[in-house]
Design a protein that fits this description.
The chain has 317 residues and is an alpha+beta fold. Helix content is 16%, strand content 27%. The chain has a single domain, classed as Sulfite Oxidase, Chain A, domain 2.
């Protein structure tokens, strides 16, 4: 029986011989004049990179990284900025960005982030769905720099406890369904204390841009992007999920027989963990390719990576 790593290696190498001139096709797509992002809405700004840009490198640049907003992009400065901590039974201090950078060990991690609505355009081909028609680009990979969320929580006396939650409040202003509110979501405390959960101030070696959450954002790998709020304002440890509109009325998981008319939002589970998702970036949709055979100029690099992080990474021959 093949191990998962061996299976990926064999199938990825097999994919190296295909009925396409991949190198010429990739070059043509990468040099296309239509390389700007696909903008689904100007306000709130929601955009994704085109397939050639998404596949241009292992890490996605800030310029190409997808943007999912629910409201405004706040104008914040590092000077005077702080995060308010609300801890049961504790008078936790506010933490400035300087505090976070000087009092806690820095961490760096590569992690993928994906919007829960990624591939919605594909879903819409089979059944009408609400929301922006995301193609394949509402997913991006970056090298994040910051501090461990768990380190910050433990520093003020927080320890793992069943049925507890960590709620995040943000600075962006939102209007939905006649309501005006600030963005807010929550995650289980156990996930907040996990080593991969971070408070981030840099992305790919550069300070976050305003569109990506300057001066500080949350990054929760493995969870839907909505659980990684930008422009962080406050962190609260509490015995219930956030009561914010975004947490309670959006990003719920519905069985196929539930409709907008029959749904009971209070009974449907939150979307947290994201499933495995894959898409063909090259050739992109509506590309015409010539007939014939040519060996793909890319080979699997899986054997150079740990089984934990292996993801059919390709490199040039």
């Amino acid at each position: 029986m093949y191990s998962r790593r061996r299976f990926v290696e064999r199938t990825s190498l097999l994919a190296g011989t295909l009925l396409l001139d991949w190198e010429s096709l990739f070059t043509a797509q990468a040099q296309s004049t239509d390389t700007g992002p696909i903008v689904h809405r100007q306000f709130p700004l929601n955009s994704e990179p085109r397939s050639p840009r998404l596949g241009a490198g292992f890490l996605t640049s800030q310029a190409d990284f997808y943007i999912r907003n629910h409201g405004t992009i706040p104008t914040l400065s590092e000077a005077g900025y702080s995060v308010h901590l609300q801890i049961p039974g504790s008078a936790a201090p506010n933490l400035s960005l300087a505090d976070l950078k000087s009092k806690f060990p820095r961490r760096s991690m590569n992690a993928v982030m994906q919007c829960a609505g990624n591939r919605r355009a594909d879903m819409g081909k089979f059944k009408s769905v609400s929301g922006d028609a995301w193609r394949v680009g509402a997913i991006s990979n970056a090298s994040w720099m910051g501090v461990g969320l768990g380190d910050v929580l433990r520093s003020v006396g927080v320890h793992d406890s069943p049925n507890m939650h960590v709620a995040f409040a943000a600075h962006d202003d939102i209007e939905e369904e006649g309501e005006h509110f600030k963005f807010g979501v929550s995650i289980p405390l156990a996930k907040a204390l996990a080593p991969e959960s971070m408070l981030v101030f840099q992305m790919n070696g550069q300070d976050l841009t305003a569109a990506h959450g300057f001066p500080l954002r949350v990054v929760i790998p493995g969870y839907a992007g909505v659980r990684s709020p930008k422009w962080l304002a406050a962190i609260s440890v509490q015995d219930r999920p956030s009561d914010n509109h975004i947490q309670q009325k959006e990003y719920k998981l519905f069985p196929p027989d539930v409709t907008k008319q029959t749904v009971d939002l209070s009974k449907e589970p939150f979307i947290n963990d994201m499933p495995l998702n894959s898409a063909i970036l090259m050739p992109s949709d509506d590309t015409t390719v010539p007939a014939g055979k040519k060996q793909c100029p890319w080979i699997c690099d899986c054997h150079q990576r740990s089984s934990r992080s292996c993801g059919t990474v390709l490199r040039r021959r």
